[in-house]
């Protein structure tokens, strides 16, 4: 009996040491960029409600004014994301933000709809979602994840699965789009879904996949109508093993071309260090992949806002 207990303790100790060694290896190898404020800040109060304006807050958080209807994707405004061990951000075990949000929650004002792509902590930030909770705000979230918001005073929380569609407030059409990723917040959350979203109003269609690896599924989107803007992730692809769930910049551009979208907005880079590639590499590789079509890349810095005018060939970028 004592021998079995001793062997068990030794195995546990070995596993602990291996885990510690792996953690230290990760800490040493990953980039450590200095903290910075965005060069520009978003000013949504100056945006017009008869246009489509999209601003990059940081990571996968994008603020959209879709003809006066305000949408916020995967909102994360905290200084750190990860496992919460106690109250306050200093008790979060996880990665630290190195680029501040390009706007505060208070500066955003009213939000009509929040879109959540999956429950990973860098996309589904509970402290941020608590601060955003208002009776006038609705939330669409993947299957199985509404329970994470059950104590928050949102006007309505709706779950959506792939290929499902709904019209929100009789104004905006939302459709769930299959992506190649995974949804577990913790290992045991096997029933948490994950999905991308096709957003449509007044004939303008915007695609937001959240996180995704390369998938040929997006080719089908063009069959349902023209995609005006694709908001695509371009970071967290190194080491290569990460690419089963995260696309490279080249793969993101390939999917963009396959869906025949007009404009590319890159996200999921230069905000949190989640992988080994240098923080500026994703954008550099994206530009190289785009080649002579690089002028179709709409936003390249935190705090930039892009005004899309469907009938005009040349689109202005406001910073």
Overview of the structural elements:
By secondary structure, the protein is of the alpha/beta class. It has two domains: 1-30; 31-313, Metallo-beta-lactamase, Chain A, CATH 3.60.15.10. It is 20% helix and 24% strand. The protein has helices spanning 2-29, 105-108, 126-132, 221-224, 249-258, 281-290; strands at 52-58, 61-66, 69-73, 80-84, 92-96, 113-115, 138-142, 156-160, 165-168, 172-177, 196-201, 204-208, 229-233, 263-267, 305-308, 317-318. The strands form three sheets. Strands 8-7-6-3-2-1-15-16 form an eight-stranded mixed sheet, with no helix packed on it. It has a six-stranded mixed sheet with strand order 9-10-11-12-13-14, with helices on one face. A two-stranded antiparallel ribbon has the order 4-5. Helix 5 (249-258) crosses helix 6. The termini are far apart.
Comma- or semicolon-separated keywords:
319 residues; alpha/beta; Metallo-beta-lactamase, Chain A; 2 domains; 8-stranded mixed sheet; 6-stranded mixed sheet; 6 helices; 16 strands; 24% strand; N-acylphosphatidylethanolamine-specific phospholipase D activity; membrane; zinc ion binding; transmembrane helix; L-ascorbate metabolism protein UlaG, beta-lactamase superfamily
């Amino acid at each position: 009996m004592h021998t079995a207990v001793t062997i068990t303790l030794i195995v546990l100790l070995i596993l602990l040491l291996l885990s510690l060694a792996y953690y230290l290896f990760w800490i040493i190898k990953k980039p450590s960029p200095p903290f910075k404020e965005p060069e520009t800040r978003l000013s949504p109060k100056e945006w017009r409600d008869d246009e489509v304006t999209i601003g990059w807050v940081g990571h996968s958080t994008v603020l959209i004014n879709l003809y006066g209807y305000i949408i916020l994707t995967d909102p994360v405004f905290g200084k750190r994301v990860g496992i919460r061990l106690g109250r306050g951000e200093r008790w979060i075990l996880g990665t630290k933000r190195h680029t501040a949000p390009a706007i505060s929650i208070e500066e955003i004002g009213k939000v009509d709809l929040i879109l959540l792509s999956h429950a990973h902590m860098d996309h589904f930030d509970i402290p941020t979602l608590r601060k955003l909770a208002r009776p006038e705000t609705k939330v669409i979230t993947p299957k199985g994840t509404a329970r994470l918001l059950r104590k928050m005073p949102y006007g309505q929380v709706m779950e959506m699965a792939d290929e499902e569609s709904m019209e929100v407030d009789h104004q905006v059409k939302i459709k769930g789009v299959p992506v190649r990723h995974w949804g577990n917040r913790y290992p045991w959350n096997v029933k948490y879904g994950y999905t991308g979203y096709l957003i449509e109003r007044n004939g303008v269609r915007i695609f937001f996949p959240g996180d995704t690896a390369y998938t040929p599924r997006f080719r089908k989107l063009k069959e349902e109508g023209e995609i005006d803007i694709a908001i695509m992730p371009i970071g967290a692809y190194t080491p290569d093993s990460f690419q089963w769930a995260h696309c490279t910049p080249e793969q993101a551009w390939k999917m963009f071309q396959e869906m025949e979208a007009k404009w590319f907005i890159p996200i999921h880079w230069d905000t949190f260090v989640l992988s080994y590639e240098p923080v500026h590499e994703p954008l550099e590789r994206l530009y190289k992949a785009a080649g002579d079509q690089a002028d179709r890349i709409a936003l390249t810095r935190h705090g930039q806002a892009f005004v899309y005018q469907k009938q005009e060939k040349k689109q202005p970028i406001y910073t």
